[in-house]
Amino acid sequence: MRHFVTYPLVAHPSNPELVTKQAIVRFATRAEELGFDGMGFTDHPAPSHRWLQAGGHDALDPFVALGVVAAVTERLRLVPNILVLPYRNPFLVAKAAATLDAVSDGRFVLAVATGYQRGEYRALGVDFDERNQLFDESLEVIRSIWTEDEVAYEGLHFTARDQTANPKPGHVPVWIGGNSALSRRRVATSADGWSPFPAPATLAKTAKTPVLESIDDLTPMLDHLWRCVDEAGRDPSTIDISMQALGCAPPGDESFDPEQHLDALGTLAELGVTWTSTGLPGHSLDAALEALERYATTVIAPQRVG
What separation, in Å, do the N-terminal and C-terminal C-alpha atoms of the chain show? Predict the structure, then answer.
């Protein structure tokens, strides 16, 4: 199992220290030294003030921030957590992703989802009710412009005639996030990975997504995914699954229990999960780094030895 970590910009107001080049460089290089396999940033270009005040968090632009990470690391995969695909024109996403993949020597993963914040959609001038159609057309356009010249496409809100964009990347893995059956059907037919997210009942209601807070919740979802994969005639071993150690307190928490994490990760691996992540405290860089090291030494190292 491989491990990635999301940069600990997880609060509002955020600690100004975390929004600096020095902090990102220090965090990324230490994560790589400690054996983490990937790193990501969240995507909130225009969150509502109400959401921020109700427990939301500040964010950096993931493409820009991951460019900094690419420049100071050699091995970390760059995995946004997670890019809201309908927010942007697909040609712009394709160009940013291809550029980041090129300058990182092929380390970028395009991890995308539809998102759930209506206010953010409104602020960006995107129709929330069109999000699924926009998502599907974006994936089609991105794959086309990455592999073909003279791409023609009639989108909901754009017309492309004979477009060509270079450089064209090698194979950029596409992960699709979300807990819905639709997300799993998309993965089975056209993606390289599934990235659901833990969703206790309160969050699930807000995000209008299925509850996912235990392995018992995850198991039937995975059963459905593997059925869809089989129906699509694909090999399950070619599809990555990313999931946290459900029900386990993160390393910055007083109740953090490494053995509980190791047991949970063992169960997840048996279910086909290939990537995992953990939450980190966001009140200071030092606290985040301390938790990062604690997780690496008590969970990642023993898990790899085992």
Answer: 11
